[in-house]
Amino acid sequence: MKLATWNVNSLKVRLPHALDWLEANQPDVLCLQETKQEDSKFPLSELQQAGYQAVFSGQRTYNGVAIISKAVLEDVMCGIPDFPDEQRRVIAATLNGVRVVCIYAPNGQSVGSEKYQYKLSWYLALRKWLKNELVCYPRLALLGDFNIAPEDRDVHDPKAWEGNVLVSEPERAEFRELEQLGLRDSFRLFEQPEKSYSWWDYRMMAFRRNMGLRIDHILLSEVLIPVCTDCTIDRAPRKLERPSDHTPVVANIVI
DNA sequence: ATGGCGCTTAATAAGCGA
């Protein structure tokens, strides 16, 4: 079973890239973030023609998440229970007995800002919910744009980024709290190239200079860790014309 | 170096992302 996540930064603009990528890679499930589309405008028929079904929770301009799958999607949930939020950041569904949770974590803007506080409270609510979710669904995968670079090796210039949003200690502590639930960063289960990142700023030729961060992740629950065979970052879509600033992360599990 | 680029809504600029 091939699982993937990709922040497309507007599904309207990136639909051709997404369809090409699905055709070339044939994942069983692809989690999307920053679709930036109201549900009425979601390109369901185009995806169905490509052999996929989808569930989605979007809004105009900002945020928006979707799960695209070859298999039937069941028990669909949007948002975090008991965490009222206008921002469409979470969607979950079960397919082939695996609970797939797709997240677009808040950016946080700057350390100490209101948006940063929102980010930390959002992570607290997420982890409290997932603790229960893992009881109901021991086979669980948490995929998405976490907007956290977990360690210094996930940052192109740790000194320049030190203390900044996306790498600050309270954010990294939240990432470790997720690991305390038994979730593991599938990327680090395997030997990886140095300087592996999933996002590069559009400016300053950051991609060409590999000035990136690894902030998109696939976390797997304890029972899925032993059956994970690989996790890779696919840099190819970042080289296309008008790319998303993020690139897909892919993991395979044998179930 | 507080800019840079790209997307969105809106409207001929401004907010936001990371």
TrEMBL record:
Gene Ontology terms, MF aspect: DNA binding; double-stranded DNA 3'-5' DNA exonuclease activity; endonuclease activity; metal ion binding
Record's keyword terms, sorted: Hydrolase, Magnesium, Manganese, Metal-binding
Residues bound to Mg(2+): N7, E34, D145, N147, D245, H246
Enzyme class: hydrolase
PROSITE patterns: AP_NUCLEASE_F1_1, AP_NUCLEASE_F1_3, AP_NUCLEASE_F1_4
Pfam families xref list: Exo_endo_phos
Entry-linked CDD domains: ExoIII-like_AP-endo (cd09086)
UniProt site positions, description: Interaction with DNA substrate: H246
Sequence ranges assigned to domain Endonuclease/exonuclease/phosphatase in this UniProt record: 4-246
UniProt cofactor note: Probably binds two magnesium or manganese ions per subunit.
Organism superkingdom: Bacteria
EC number: 3.1.11.2
Keyword check for Manganese: yes
UniProt-annotated site: Transition state stabilizer, residues: N147
Matching InterPro entries: AP_endonuc_1 (IPR004808), AP_endonuclease_F1_BS (IPR020847), AP_endonuclease_F1_CS (IPR020848), Endo/exonu/phosph_ase_sf (IPR036691), Endo/exonuclease/phosphatase (IPR005135), ExoIII-like (IPR037493)
Cofactor: Mg(2+); Mn(2+)
One GO-annotated biological process of the protein: DNA repair
Database matches in Gene3D superfamilies: Endonuclease/exonuclease/phosphatase
Family listed: Belongs to the DNA repair enzymes AP/ExoA family.
The name this protein goes by in its record: Exodeoxyribonuclease III
Taxonomic source organism: Candidatus Nitrotoga fabula
